[in-house]
Each structure stands twice: as structure tokens, then as C-alpha cells.
Fold each of these.
Amino acid sequence: MSSLAWIDFDEAERQRAQRIIALFQERESRDELGLGSIRDSIADHLFPGTSTIQTRLRYMLFVPWLYQSLEQRRRAPHQLKEEARTLEIRLVEALKTGGEKKGIIGREAGVKLQRLPSSVYWAGLNAWGIRLFHGSIDSYFAALQRRRLDHTPDESETSAERYSNQKFWTKGLPPCPAKLLDSTTFRLTKDEAGFIIDRLVSQQPSSLLTHLAQHRVDAECDYIWEHPQRHDFPAKAQHLVQQADRFSAVLHGASLLYNLQLSERREHDDWVRSYQQRIEAWADGIDLKAIQNWSLDDFWKTVEHPAHNIRPATRRFVAQWLEQVASGVERISASYSARSLVKKRESQLKSSQSRFTNRAVLDRWTGASGAERLSFRWSQAKSHLRDLAHAR
């Protein structure tokens, strides 16, 4: 992503920008009402190191294996970057040869692949303590050259010994399989699964992801609060999941009302009927008593995360929407104040690009923007946990 080169010096900002760009390409993850900081805070507490564009867990090993193979090559940073890209493209073909059909990053794009697996998993590798080098991919390649030039060779050292002291990757990384780039699969070995679990226990000991990974839990459910073993979660995780469930349920109504209003402006009767029905179903599912007793002060304390700044305007919108819901959820689709609240929020966020004021933007709308419940990256976490559970 050459367009992000200007923030290459700041890894945190780079990752944040990549998340924003990715969200614009994922229909149901669009953050039309500015709830992304809350969503990501909760997701990073529950499932740290995951992202919505991750596919399969073994990429957490593929990337360091491929990058390690470059560390002893005497190349300039731009040459190493190109060689890394070549290796990642070869990995696509190796996975196809191995019989994999789903989850391959670049399966269709091939040599035209823009978002490489390394960029997708780079932040997660750091969060799980697999990557010890704190910096961007470009700075990693620059560091390889710099450290090689700074190192005074000792004739008694082997090449492997010189580079083992560079601390780019954690000790104990499982060995790269022979002929990895000829044929491979997403199936983890037991040793590889054990390594990943050890990393999670070491770096993310209090996360729900770690708890589930330790127990090799493979559960099929759409949302984490529907998990069959939810009552066995640690107490802190249970509380966070409860808060996530409540937030997702309540704010889903605001997203549906947003889509309903746009459907009305487009005068698309089928869309209007669909969203009216969905709002009715949403209202029927709301536990009004629980919502009326919901403490937002407790919620904000629970979801607070150092990597995300939840702005005062976002907090006010959530509080005002909660008031709308608590005062009469069954009338919300017809409520002028509820409609105005949603419209004002989107307009403030998008300014001249608001679909309420810019007809050209509205006409490009395809009928759904962020219309599904927030799931806080459970889909990706579930996939990773399944890969751990089926290691052999």
C-alpha cells in the first residue's frame, strides 16, 4: 500500500489507517454512525490480534517463516521487499496445490495481489508476541540491512548464529516445513498449535480468545454471546460479553433506522418494507427492562482500551440513542426525534458526503450500509479457534 508510506514511521497510525481502508471495502462493517472506536475497543479486549480481513490461523506462522528465509540475504531493503512479495505469491499457489479452496489470500488476484498476508497479519504477530520487531514492514527490511552493516562478523559465528541474536521473532518458533512453497495446507500441527497457545497465554493472558484457545473450543454460533460454554467464561470475560451483547443489540436499531431512512429517500418500496420488518423484529427482541437499567458508566469503564479513543460526541450519541430506546422501542421507527438523531449523527460525520444532503452519494447507495449486528470479530476468532481445535 504505497499510499500509506507517509505514515510508515508510526506503526500504530499505519495499522489504524489500514483498518479504516479495509472497512470501506467490507459492506457490513461500514461505520456509518461512528461507532468504530467502541466496536474495536471491545473486539481488542475479547480477541486481540485479530482483524476483519484475516482468514486462517496458520498465516501467523507462514509470514515469519517466509520472512526468516530472507534475513540472511545480502539485499537492499527494496529488493528484500520484492523478494518477500514473490514468496507470498508463491504461497498462494502452494496452498492451491495442497488442496485448499477457502481462506487463501490472493486466490483470485494471483500476481496482482495488493494486500499481502504479511500486511494482514503484521499487527497480530506483534500482539501475540510472535514478532518482536516493533515497526512497519518497510522499516523491518531497512532494519535487516542496517543490523547486518552494523554487525562486526566474528569468524567463530555461523551465519545462523549471527542472525539468531537479532530478535526479530520470538524464540521457539516452530521450524518451517520442508518444501513449504511447493505444497502446503492450513492444517496446524500439534506443535504449531501449542506454540500459538503459549504465545497467547504469555502476551494476552486475560483475553477470552486465550481462554477459548487453551480449551481448544470449536463452537458454531453467530455471536460470542450465543456461545454454548458462555457460562464457563472467566467472570471478567462474561461481563464484557454481556456488555458487548447489549451494545450490539441496542445500536443495531440505530443502524436499521439509518438504512430505513435512506430507503425512503430512494423511494425503494422493497427496501423500505424490509427495513420496517427488521426494525419490528429488532424491537421485539429488546429486553426493555434490562436496557432501562443499563449503566453506561459501567459500560464505558468496561470497554475502555488504550489503543482506542472514544470521543465525547460518540458517547453522547450512544446515550441519546439509549434514551430513545428506553422511552419506547416499539415506536422508534416513526419517532421524529430518533430519526433526527440518526440523521444528525451521520451528517456530522460525513459532512458534504452525507447521504441525507448529497443526492449523488445517495444515488450510489446500494441498499445496505452497516445493517448487521456488530459481532466484534467473532467470525475471525471462531475460525482461528477451529484451526487450533483441529490441529494434528
Amino acid sequence: MVIINGENLTIEDVARIAVKGEAVGLSPGSIERINRSREYVEGIIKKGEIVYGVTTGFGKFCNVIISSEDTRKLQINLIRSHSVGVGEYFPEEIVRAMMLLRINALAKGYSGIRLSTIETLIDMLNKGVTPLVPCQGSLGASGDLVPLAHIALVMMGEGEAVFNSKILPGKIALELAGIKPVVLEAKEGLALINGTQAMSAVGSLALAGAQNLSKVADISGVLSFEALNGIIDAFDEKVQAIRPHPGQNSCARNFMILLEGSRLITRQGQLKVQDAYALRCMPQVHGAIKDAIKHIRKVLEIEINSATDNPLIFSNEEKVISGGNFHGEPVAINMDYLSIAVSELANISERRIERLVNPYLNEGLPPFLIENGGLNSGLMISQYTAAAIVSENKTLSAPASVDSIPSSANQEDHVSMGTIAARKAMKVVENTVNVLAIELLCAAQAMDFRIQKTGLDKALGKGTLAAYEAVREKVPTIVADRPLSDDVRILAGLIKSGELVRRVEKVVGTLE
């Protein structure tokens, strides 16, 4: 069980809980803060004080005073009116990540919500009641109001949810899981939906995927490099030391470790003077992406451990402050950054694929990596697929965060579009998995010919050999044309599961 306290959730925690289903619970300190915050809110209600979202309407209705007898109805109406999402549903693991991140934000004790309401959300997460949440509708500025409202709707016993792999009415799903629906009290509806948890959930899982792809690209890249008799001098630590970007140096170290013992790599001037940029500049390109991922991780881990509600309840100081922590700009900009960074992994990978299959560039390997070329097309069209995906990634990398459309009668006059940015970043990550799978397919095929040509059955580096064997355990050598979609799908699974990286790191140690 992961104990939630609002302070130290990591990207790995989010992935483990959302994807693998690890249970969560609240820390004693969080319980104390939650109760203290709620007591203060109830005191405000008794005194009849005017506080946004507690005794007033929302957005442009912030100046409409709500009577004490209508505060409960106000919260219910809020959730119902804001449940207006459209489009495909988010995958279950993303919704689970949203639930987790909302629990973590509420655990900080600045939202004025009852402990029992948070415990309902925890029970839903732990027992596998996953609301159906449409992926479109958030502007990413008053928080992710629309997607989070669909979660709160199920908490109330409305909407729809997945339970035991079946789509059910929310009330039935809760009943089957032994969970009582929540009757929202003052401030609670707002506390459940005002925050950046949808964009942060998508962003956290996209980032977890990108971290894995950063290592996969190093592995697939050096396998291609080795199959193309790459010049190892470019990875010399002296070259990296005089341009000391951390990611660049990490990549060069990874490459040297992966290639240790290789008899296929060459030295400067041995067969050629220089390699093309897609090979020679891998430390610089992959390294810049590692640095980007590191920066994005720092921003996201601040965000997922922040209070993003409005208004915020400072019970110790007896203050309620309306601010802007719900605005998704920090996440939005960094999700656009992630799209750009991961797109570049695919971009340079496709250039290596082209070099592998092109007989004018592949250092003596057969055209399109197949015997009886002409009768067989081999891996010719795999490069087409990679190119199509790379082109799609470029369109997805156009920034969402530079756009803004005012809402709520211009009360909310600048918005982040952060959830759109996060969804695009996730799609770029998914696309890049397939490009790297195609590179692995081509690089392993090229290696088959290189081994055959040299007669060196132990020619590979220790890390590249582990990668090559992992590929060959999943897909056989292509000896004549066959449909390759299944091969790519299988290798994409090898990548996404983390198995490829685990297999290689078991041999060479942890890659940076």
C-alpha cells in the first residue's frame, strides 16, 4: 500500500498505482489536516460569511449569494452541469491516475472537503470502480473541470463506471463494490473538480512512457549504429566533456557500455572518415531529450504534490484565499515540450531506419534487408510506415499552450489548454513506440546479414547482443516477404512493457 500525504508522490508511484493497481491510504497527518480544514469551512457556513464556491455561485456567478439551505444543492448542480465531456473515453489507467492525483491534492488539507468524501474516492480507486470519463472538454484553467466532474458524478451514484470489466451505471457499480454514494456538502463539489489532475495524470503516464523510450532509443540506436559499422570515436568521453550537457554525457556513456566488446564497430578512418548525423550525433540529440525529460519530470512532480483548488482554505491562519493554482500553464507548456522532445526520438530513429534499408547508405547490406530483392520487397515499406508516423508526430507537436479562448463570460479570460497538450504528448509517445519497434525490426534484420557476412557469431557488444536476442525471441528473421504488422505490434509490446530495457540492463547494469 502507498500512503498518501500530499507531499512526495513520484511519477513511478503514479504509474504503479494507476496501471498495476497498488492500493492507497491516507497518512495520519493528512487526516488531521483534512479534518481541521473541514471544521473551518463548517464554521464559515454557520457564520454566513461570503466565500466563493461555498456561499456563492461559480465563475461569472461569483457575485450571486447562495442561501445556507441551498449550499448542498449548489454542489450537486455543479457536478451535474459540469459533466459535459465528449469524445472517446480516457483509458482506465488514466482515470485511475486522475483519482489518485485528486486524492493526493486533497490530502494536503487546503480544500475543506470531508474526510468521508475522500475515503469514498479512495475506496473506488482501491476496489476498481473506474468512472467513464470523456477525453474532450477541459480548457485546463479553472482546473480540469469537465473530466473531474465525471469522476465526481459517479461518486454521487450517477454517471457510468467500469467495474469488473463491465460498463455499469455509477450507482450499480458502487453497490457491487460495497461503496455508499456521497451526498455532497458545501464546498465539496468544487473541491473535487477544481485542479489540474486530468492533464497531470495524462502527463505523468506519458512521461513514464517517455522515460522508458529514452532508454529504448539508446538501445535501438546503437544496434543500428553497430549494424552500420559506426565509428565509435564520436562517443569518446573527451568529446562530451567539452560540451558538458548532462544528457549528452549520459548517452555517450550508455552507448559505450552497450557496445562494449563489439567487433562490428569501426574507428575513424578505418572504413570511412565520418558517420552521418543520425549516427554520429546520437549523444547530442538523445541527450537533449533526456535533459528535457528530466526538466519535465521536475515540473510534474511539483504539480502532482500541489494544492490546486480554489478557494484555498488556510485553517491555521483562519483565511480563505481565492487564487489561481488551478491554472494549468506549467503543465501545458511542459506537455508541449514533451511532444517536441519525444517527436525527435522518432525523427532521428526514422533516419536510421532509412540508412539501414537504403542500399546506397547501408554499408554493403542487401537492399531493403532481404534476399532476392525485387521478388521480395523486404523492409522497404516499413520505412514508409515510420515516415508516416514521424510526419503525424510533427503535426501533434504544434503547441496547444499558445492558444486561449475566454470562457465564463470573460471571467476566465486566459486558459492553458493543458489537457489538450497532455493528450497530444501521450499520442506522440504511443506513436514513437511504433517507430522504435520498426527500428528494432530493421536493425535485427541488418545484424543477421552482418553476422552472416563476417562469420562473427559473437560480434555484437554485450548490450546490443542482449537487445538482439530479445528481438529474435519475439520475431524471426525475415527470409521472404510476410505481413509485418504483427512483428511491429509484438516489438511494440516488448518496448512498452519495459521488458527490452530490463533484459539489456540485466547484462550491462542500469542505463542513464
